[in-house]
């Protein structure tokens, strides 16, 4: 929550899972204005009195990103550090739409890497005197992985073209992020199956990709939330919050 005070603003609250917040020199904080009830944006500098960022421990995925818990205890922000272009969630949704394009490509890259690893593995490893690539079930899984990757590439390409032409909507971006991360889950799962027991070893990278994909599936809007953003756009009905149910007379 943000409160207006003489000379600026006072920030109070907590935020979780903020990427690289433990060592960032500048934090961009979005907070609800206590007066207008709208979201506003602010710059908070490292070392500000009342600001504390603690690294979240024991992650299994995207370990290169240092996610943190942020505590804001009466943090003063001068007026000049307010982001004047952010005055509502509608302003923030424009940023989310752009970032979801970028995130939509991450599972595509992960899937391509898993496919390459599995392709090499099946060609090199032999069972009963023949390479694993010679077995029908393995070929079917490999082809299914490749089909998903080709479809994901086209979705990513289409998103970029829509953005370049100025025609991309929040629903487009949300659909792309939700769909590619969902299909990538299937690709990585098939890859883990193809490697058998070796699929759970970090040596072959598929297990690492399996873990890295899980946070991607959730951040920048979970699969469910992104689906609802697109659902609202195609139906004209927002279903994030169910309509109030009339009280029964019984």
TrEMBL record:
Its cofactor is FAD. GO terms for biological process: fatty acid beta-oxidation. It comes from the Eukaryota. PROSITE patterns: ACYL_COA_DH_2 (PS00073). Residues 92-232 form the Acyl-CoA dehydrogenase/oxidase C-terminal domain. Keywords: FAD, Flavoprotein, Oxidoreductase. One of its GO terms (molecular function) is acyl-CoA dehydrogenase activity. Residues 7-75 form the Acyl-CoA oxidase/dehydrogenase middle domain. Pfam families: Acyl-CoA_dh_1, Acyl-CoA_dh_M. Gene3D superfamilies: Butyryl-CoA Dehydrogenase, subunit A, domain 2, Butyryl-CoA Dehydrogenase, subunit A, domain 3. InterPro entries: ACX4-like (IPR045008), Acyl-CoA_DH_CS (IPR006089), Acyl-CoA_Oxase/DH_mid-dom (IPR006091), Acyl-CoA_Oxase/DH_mid-dom_sf (IPR046373), AcylCo_DH-like_C (IPR036250), AcylCo_DH/oxidase_C (IPR009075), AcylCoA_DH/oxidase_NM_dom_sf (IPR009100). Belongs to the acyl-CoA dehydrogenase family. This is Acyl-coenzyme A oxidase 4, peroxisomal. It comes from Aegilops tauschii subsp. strangulata (Goatgrass).
């Amino acid at each position: 929550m943000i409160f207006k005070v003489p000379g600026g603003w006072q920030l109070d609250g907590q935020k979780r899972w903020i990427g690289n917040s433990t060592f960032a020199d500048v934090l961009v904080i979005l907070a609800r204005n206590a007066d207008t009830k709208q979201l506003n944006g602010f710059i908070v500098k490292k070392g500000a009195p009342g600001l504390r960022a603690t690294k979240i421990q024991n992650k299994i995925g995207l370990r290169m990103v240092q996610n943190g818990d942020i505590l804001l205890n009466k943090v003063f922000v001068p007026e000049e550090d307010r982001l004047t272009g952010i005055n509502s969630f509608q302003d923030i949704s424009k940023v989310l739409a752009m970032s979801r394009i970028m995130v939509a490509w991450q599972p595509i890259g992960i899937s391509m890497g898993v496919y390459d690893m599995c392709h090499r593995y099946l060609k090199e490893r032999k069972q009963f005197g023949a390479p694993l690539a010679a077995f029908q079930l393995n070929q079917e899984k490999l082809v299914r992985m490749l089909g998903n990757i080709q479809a994901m590439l086209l979705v990513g390409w289409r998103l970029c073209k829509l953005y370049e032409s100025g025609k991309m909507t929040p629903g487009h971006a949300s659909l792309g992020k939700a769909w590619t991360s969902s299909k990538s889950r299937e690709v990585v799962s098939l890859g883990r199956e193809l490697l058998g027991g070796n699929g759970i070893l970090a040596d072959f990278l598929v297990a690492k990709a399996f873990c890295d994909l899980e946070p991607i599936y959730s951040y920048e809007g979970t699969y469910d939330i992104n689906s609802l953003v697109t659902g609202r756009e195609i139906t004209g009905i927002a279903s994030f919050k169910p309509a109030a149910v009339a009280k029964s007379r019984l």
